[in-house]
Amino acid sequence: MNRYLRELSDRKLAVRLALAGRVHQYPEIQALRRFLSAFAVDCLFDVGANRGQYATMARRDAGYKGMILSFEPNPAVFAELQKRAAPDRHWHVFNMALSDFDGPASFNIMAADQFSSLKTPSGAQDAIFADRNKVMQTVDMQCRRLDTLLPELVAQHGFKRPFLKMDTQGHDMAVCEGAGDILAQMLGVQTELGVRPIYEGGTVYRDMIDWLEARAFLPSAFFANNKGHFPLLVEMDGIFVNRTLVTA
Questions:
Q1: What is the DSSP pairing of strand 103-110 with strand 135-145?
Q2: Beta-bridge partner residues of 117
Q3: Is the pTM of this model over 0.85?
Q4: Contact by Cβ (8 Å): 242, 194
Q5: pLDDT digit string (tens) for 10-30?
Q6: How far, in Å, CA of 215 to CA of 156, rounded?
Q7: Residue 234 maps to a domain
Q8: Parent domain of 83
Q9: Which CATH number covers residue 90?
């Protein structure tokens, strides 16, 4: 009976996503739902939150009920994120970026704000991104290292089983490096993997996978993070599990 109900729920989700033009998110939602539940994640770090699309998906589609900490440096977009999170007492938002240093930085606001980044667009990026991924203005903002910030957040919120999701437009490696030894406290990591990076100095997917594996994070799932760009993949997302959770 439980299996039947689960399959029925999965079919309803697939239909709802298809009707909303979001069917490409089905693999991500299924992987995220299973991971967050199986490992009893109690805090979701949403780094590069934009308007809160990922956090909303985790709540509504993946059934996550724990704490969410969202980080978004773009002040205009942050105002929308703050409004969306306000009714949810377990969703806290921060107008800052996570990186590999503590201090001020210039943040690039792109023509399409979901491409905004601490990095600059690549001169070799595909033509389909040229109009959207170009710098329109820069704003001053604050960066924090996760290894200096996490103790403050644990003391304030008391979580014990965090999961780190990053969508920082080419800056995910710096976020991980800024975590230092504290990265080992994450039960899992979800990162954007650039197959053909669209930012200068963006980490190539093979290098990110190797870097995480060297720090005891093993692949759990891979999926396209958008509707795709046939026939050549530009980006995908990967969920990586802390090796301590899957070995005796």
A1: antiparallel
A2: 108
A3: yes
A4: no
A5: 788 878 877 778 888 889 999
A6: 27
A7: yes
A8: 17-101+145-245
A9: 3.40.50.150
